[in-house]
Amino acid sequence: MNHLLKDHIETISPLSDEEFAYILSHFVFKKIKKHAFLVQEGDPVKYEYFVLKGCLKAYVADNATGKEFIFQFAAEDWWITDREAFFKRSTATVNIDCLEDCEVLALTLENREKLGVEMWKYEHFLSVKAYWGYISLQKRLQMMIMGSAKDRYENFIAQYPNLFNRIPKSFIASYLGVSRETLSRLYKS
Amino acid sequence: MNHLLKDHIETISPLSDEEFAYILSHFVFKKIKKHAFLVQEGDPVKYEYFVLKGCLKAYVADNATGKEFIFQFAAEDWWITDREAFFKRSTATVNIDCLEDCEVLALTLENREKLGVEMWKYEHFLSVKAYWGYISLQKRLQMMIMGSAKDRYENFIAQYPNLFNRIPKSFIASYLGVSRETLSRLYKS
């Protein structure tokens, strides 16, 4: 299933089999059960994860109100971690848990930086990927502030095609900032 | 004033004077008058801009309601453009105009990519900068969805120290998604 990672990097930087094998040797394969935490608030964040199989949600818990704000989903072909804590070597301020049994490839910050220094192609991949991520997040921010519930729903479908039926609707509603009833109306229409 | 750009890149990638001179030779210096547009909806976006002097706002206009959503300010030491249009060589979907007389350094996508290919240090700078940008945007998204008006205000002060007195309060209120009255209460307290 590692070809998923190769295909993913190659959308930006084409690789020989040797180059990919070298990159892959820096990752650790992990299996995580449904409901288990990949990242837990307060813990150190040692890895950035590339999802090979399964589906996860990342959220911030508001301890005062008990409310959860889901800010990202990830499934096959996506990266997920607490980026700030990972990058600053601090402890997590978010939680990431598994909505299904998951398989991921985990990369430490040391290995991420090592790969970037050793291979321009990898640094370029990181650079373009982060830029795309910024653009898509900016679109989401605009949606949350200016968009109607319908705009947000349509943006979700565009951002996460094929995920709609895998994720409990209450989580999708939380991600979109709409009520469960509004969401039902939207996907029936 | 070009030392601003050198200092900025050097927060990530230290440069010799020769390296910086080479980088700088790829930028074009531009002056833009207060109220003029740097980027206008519907136009091609040829440049990414590094601000040497002045202050700008980037916003999306909702043509149906006439409302404006300000999603970014930029002043000395910040980058600004319509990132999606710049990167995809498409036309702008946002507007960026000058709140003061401005001086910027403009870089085309061709030169940005050329510098990245020729100098690993520049590609690394782009990569880290985009990652930081993603993290700060994610924080803003959380603020807009979960944060109180006070949280948003405090986040603004942290993100744009020294800008509060340079930007008309009605624009700051738009950026924060709060009323002008709420903003007044916050900064008096």
UniProtKB/TrEMBL annotation, chains A, B:
Residues 30-111 form the Cyclic nucleotide-binding domain. InterPro entries: cNMP-bd_dom (IPR000595), cNMP-bd_dom_sf (IPR018490), RmlC-like_jellyroll (IPR014710). CDD domains: CAP_ED. This is CRP-like cAMP-binding protein. SUPFAM superfamilies: cAMP-binding domain-like (SSF51206).
